[in-house]
Specification:
The chain contains ten helices and nine strands. It is an alpha/beta fold. Strands 1-4-3-2-5-6 form a six-stranded parallel sheet, with helices on both faces. Strands 7-8-9 form a three-stranded antiparallel sheet, covered by helices on one side. The longest helix has 16 residues, at 124-139. It is globular and about 55 Å long. It starts with a strand and ends with a strand. The structure holds pantoate. Pantoate binds at residues 28-30, 58, 61, 128, 131-132, 150, 153. Pantoate is lined by residues 28-30, 58, 61, 128, 131-132, 150, 153.
Length: 282
């Protein structure tokens, strides 16, 4: 596996592969890799000739008082995992390499960035779209793979690619869960044993929503109240939001007719966990 830490290094590697006619697939990450990330690497490898993974804990997507400093990091372990999984190039820049002192630009997808997680994390998605566009320009991928776990992020990136006419195909990877249903996340390490146990209520609450829809309930208010009521039974959980939205526009739905997605954000102690699930109306 080749490792690039400088922007110009990564750019010339990308140019070299493009010149040879290779299809570059890309998985951007913030490291501390788990099976969720590695499943995206598998998709990228199938969909391209050269798989590039970036590890960069992006300071501008963390708000003041958020977990930038204590975000878990273990790049040596990540390198081993990526090597084993067949990644070809690791791009691992420093913060000063990505953001020199005179950096001034921000990329923002209006509306979609200020709802749901954007409400409690102002500026977060602007930080994400800015770094993702930079990474696309550096890595020059033909295809980039993002996890559905960060569903709002996926929708925002797809919109940025469309609105800015970027030549990158966006592919979504399914959520990978622990055996008990908890969605894999680097932030799960923040959970103490009691919180970890209770955190399965996110997955279980979404199954409850599915069951209600299967039983013929279409009114989202009724479903959201039941999901919220279920989560509130767990004393360590503090709900940020529970919403049922259209999967493409993220607009809140009053009734479920065909396609819908339930999205949740719940605090457990220091951790803010998000999860989501497609609601199958058939
Ligand atoms: O999903 C993430 O890990 C990050 O938001 C991303 C896409 C790597 C941008 O920093």
């Amino acid at each position: 596996m080749r490792i690039a830490t400088r922007v110009d290094e990564m750019k010339s590697i990308a140019k070299e592969y493009r010149k040879k006619g290779k299809r570059i697939s890309f998985v951007p990450t913030m490291g501390y890799l788990h099976e969720g990330h590695l499943s995206l690497v598998d998709i990228a490898r199938k969909d391209g000739d050269i798989c590039v993974v970036s590890i960069f804990v992006n300071p501008i997507q963390f708000g003041p008082g958020e977990d930038y400093e204590r975000y878990p990091r273990d790049v040596e372990r990540d390198e081993r995992l990526l090597e084993q999984r067949g990644c070809d190039v690791l791009f691992y820049p420093s913060a000063s390499e990505m953001y020199p002192e005179d950096f001034l630009t921000r990329v923002r997808v209006e509306k979609l960035s200020s709802i749901l997680c954007g409400k409690s994390r102002p500026g977060h998605f602007e930080g994400v779209t800015t770094v993702v566009l930079k990474l696309f320009n550096i890595v020059k991928p033909h295809v980039a793979v993002f996890g559905e776990k960060d569903y709002q992020q996926l929708v925002i990136i797809k919109r940025m690619v469309r609105d800015l006419n970027l030549d990158v195909e966006i592919v979504a990877g399914e959520i990978i869960r622990e055996k008990d249903g908890l969605a894999m996340s680097s932030r799960n390490v923040y959970l103490d044993p009691v919180e970890r146990k209770q955190a399965t209520c996110l997955f279980r609450s979404m199954l409850l929503a599915q069951d209600m829809v299967k039983a013929g309930i279409r009114d989202t208010k009724t479903i959201v109240e039941a999901v919220g009521g279920f989560i509130k039974k767990f004393d360590r959980a503090r709900i940020d939001y529970v919403k049922i939205v259209h999967p493409d526009t993220l607009e809140e739905l009053e009734e479920i007719h065909d396609r819908a997605r339930i999205l949740l954000a719940v605090y457990f102690g220091k951790a803010r966990l998000i999860d989501n699930m497609e609601i199958d109306v058939s």
